[in-house]
Write a structure and sequence with these properties.
Elements lengths: L6 H23 L2 H5 L2 E9 L5 E2 L1 H14 E15 L2 E14 L6 E13 L5 E8 L2 E2 L6
Parallel strand pairs: 1-6
Antiparallel strand pairs: 1-2, 3-4, 4-5, 5-6, 5-7
Length: 142
Amino acid sequence: MHNEGTGQASEAATTILNNIQLWQEATAAGDVDKLLDLMDEEVVFLVAGNPPMKGREQFTQNLRNILQTHHIASSSQIQEIVVQADLAYTWSYLQVEIIPKQAGPQMRRAGNVLSIWRLQADGKWRISRDANLLSLVQDNPA
């Protein structure tokens, strides 16, 4: 993990890491409303093979649709975090399990994620851009 500058940068990095943990916990609990405060209103999510998902309303609508039929569990290993004034980025390796609430196969995806965070006027760090390079994890037959 890498941090630029002062104690303020270190404090910002800790806050961002806490936001990532909160994001994963809220998603696992199906608490989409808690995610709203972690995203800039104009957030953009880039997912391989899909058009950009623009705005937190589009993201939350898509997530709510998925959570009607599935649970999501995730874990991330932070590879790098850099904070410069009111802008930061995180690079992490993310693993996601999408588990049907009823019968059916679960899906596992894993890969690198690069996220850009901005310090907002209200003093909160929110995700502004997210490039998600997850791909399907194939189970190896025994």
